[in-house]
Amino acid sequence: MCCVSVPDALYKGKHVTYDDAELIQNRLYHEHRIEVPLKVIQEKLYVRISVHIYNELSEYEKLADAVLSMLP
């Protein structure tokens, strides 16, 4: 497992809370069918991904594209 930082532009200018993480997590699920936990660590948002034999590169690329599609 590792945590990957979410672009600051998704929440720039505001104090990040668990509620912000939950909103983005829910949006990823409802709009893209991606189930991934988001965590607030030292006032920044991170997705926690699991790298395992059953995961494919295309799934990580889908996640990256989904996050980038949410940028303003």
Mind explaining what this structure looks like?
The protein has a single domain, classed as Alpha-Beta Plaits (2-Layer Sandwich), CATH 3.30.70. It has 72 residues and is α+β, with helices and mostly antiparallel strands. It has two helices and three strands, in the order βαββα. Helices cover 39% and strands 19% of the residues. The N and C termini lie far apart (28 Å). It has a three-stranded antiparallel beta sheet with strand order 1-3-2.
Give structural attributes.
alpha+beta, Alpha-Beta Plaits, three-stranded antiparallel β-sheet, 19% strand, 72 residues, 39% helix
Task: Describe the structure concisely for a colleague.
By secondary structure, this protein is an alpha+beta fold. Helix content is 39%, strand content 19%. The N and C termini lie far apart (28 Å).
